[in-house]
Each structure stands twice: as structure tokens, then as C-alpha cells.
Amino acid sequence: MKFSKLSANFLIERNLKDEKYITVYDQYTPNYARQVVTGKFYSKYELKGDEADQAILDKLQWVKDFGPREKLDWPETSNQWYGWYLEPLVPLDKSNKKLYFPQPCSEMTKHGLQLLKEKTKKKQ
């Protein structure tokens, strides 16, 4: 492979800078004097006998138990708009057939029921 004089000089300079500024470690040894960010729950040496702060535990329980509707007054994202208001805006009268006409069975469910009937016939 042939290099021009400019590209060869560039590669030589790049290599010299890499050797000067970059250190590659072959072996990693942890710094035991440094405080760890998170402890290992399975390590008997890192477990502490101190009790956790009750305020923090209560906040974690609150975050776990309640959804966005209890935490926020208003939906923050567009995904939260879906299902935010569960009550219908207009009361629904199911006896009025002009406004309430549910589909009792669709073509897909009819087809599925027919397949189930054929499966039960084959098993018997």
C-alpha cells in the first residue's frame, strides 16, 4: 500500500501523540480506599447496620404506589393524555339506541369462534 508524504507524516505525528497522551492499562486494580457509589447487597463486608431514613423510604413507596394522575395536576406528555380522564364528558344512556349501538360480534371474532368449534370437533 502506497502512502503519500503528507499521509505518512500525519500518521507518524498521530502515533507520537497517542504514545504521549494515551495510557493503555493491561491490568486493572480497583481503588479500595475510594467510596463506592452503590454497595453490593450480597457482600457481608459492605452491609451497614444503620437504618434507612424513613422519609426516603416513604418517598420511594409513594413513587411506587401512585401513578401520574396522583402525582401531577395536569398531563405533562402527549402519552399521558390517553386515559387521563376516565369519566365520559357526556353521560351515556345505554337505553337510547340512537347514541349507543355496540357491535355485539365482529367478523374477526366470528371467524375465531368458528376455528375454535372446528378444533373441538377434531379433538373429539
Strand content: under 5%
**Shape, principal axes of CA atoms:** extended
Q: What is the CA-atom radius of gyration, in angstroms?
A: 34 Å
- Count of individual helical segments: 5
Order of helices and strands: HHHHH
Helix content: 40-55%
The parts where pLDDT drops under 50 for at least 5 residues are none
Structural class call reads: mainly alpha
Q: Biggest sheet: strands, sense, closure?
A: none
The tally of beta strands, per DSSP, is 0
From the N-terminal CA to the C-terminal CA, the straight-line distance is: 75 Å
Family: Belongs to the CFAP144 family.
Subcellular location: Cell projection, Cilium; Cytoplasm, Cytoskeleton
Keywords: Cell projection, Cytoplasm, Cytoskeleton
Main location: other
Care to describe what's here?
It is a single chain. With 124 residues, this protein is an all-alpha fold. The chain has a domain at 51-76. The chain has 5 helices and no strands. The chain has helices spanning 5-21, 54-65, 68-71, 78-81, 107-123. It is extended. The mean pLDDT is 81.
